[in-house]
């Protein structure tokens, strides 16, 4: 069987598996958005985080109760707590919460801008049981600091990465880069820098037309940018470098598994759920925060009650089979692409690589 036929077979099998998953979802990633507050004000932030101080923030005690509840209802094995924000390390009780999660036996990882990871913080993260971490570096120094509107942010983030490496004891240290039309020319120079740093992987993703990024349409990638991006990733991967494209978007038969290790499937509501800083429960945190997409609140119902009975938009196999998606020959593999770039008002995907890459 040739490579293309094998991919089609695999994607067909995944499609059949997904149909079963819609009927019986499996929790693999539970995100805790510890805060909307952030010490950076990134141009691309899907949640528009920054100087946000929510009056109804979940308390330390409430997080302890949530963790107890989840351990009772789901156990602690087979899924990971994914800690994010805002900048999660801005919470003064961060190590209390995550130390308690570690004590209960949860595996957890974190997404962070890295600027607050001093040597002391790196040590405390290891003691609190952090397994994985992804730190954002979004270009060379000047580009990164401008994109994140954070003077000195690049140097602090790179220092944070090195502090984690020096501390040791973590399963996976990753750098994530959001590529824009302005920064894509810096990929080769970034590779030269990261190749000398003892990270475990480099994850490259495109700027998405969501959140604050909608204010900067000039930064979105062009079709030529995308073709260059995927060629860059594939070439580095072919040479054995641990570089991958993010989990978003169906890329077509030629690029699926060439630019990342897995085939596309949107995890929202079937593998992935999130508890927001105010207790609201949703799917992926990058999805537009519309009232109809909030599944409930952890202060009113247990997470298990909501996981078992809600998320109907994500588990309806025909919810997004409309418009141009209805007759698409790749529907079984794509299913409307990622929920976080679905236009719920116009009922269409904001990004369709079938149109961008002409496959």
Task: Give a short overview.
The chain has 359 residues and is of the alpha/beta class. It is 34% helix and 14% strand.
Q: What is the topology?
A:
Layout: H1 3-23, E1 29-33, H2 60-74, E2 80-84, H3 94-104, E3 108-112, H4 119-127, E4 130-136, H5 141-147, H6 153-167, E5 172-179, H7 187-194, E6 201-206, H8 223-238, E7 243-245, E8 272-275, E9 280-282, E10 296-297, H9 303-309, H10 312-315, H11 331-334, E11 342-343, E12 348-349, H12 353-357
Parallel strand pairs: 1-2, 1-8, 2-3, 3-4, 4-5, 5-6, 6-7
Antiparallel strand pairs: 8-9, 9-10, 11-12
Helix pairs in contact: 2-3, 4-6
**Total helical segments:** 12
Which stretches are poorly predicted, pLDDT < 50 over at least 5 residues? none
Pairing-aware structural class of the strands and helices? Answer: alpha/beta
- Largest sheet features: 10 strands, mixed
Helix content: 25-40%
The geometry reads as globular
Name the beta content range.
5-15%
Give the C-alpha Rg. 20 Å
Gap from first CA to last CA: 21 Å
Mean pLDDT: 95
The sequence of SSEs as H and E is: HEHEHEHEHHEHEHEEEEHHHEEH
How many extended strands? 12
Q: Which sequence of strands runs across the widest sheet?
A: 7-6-5-4-3-2-1-8-9-10
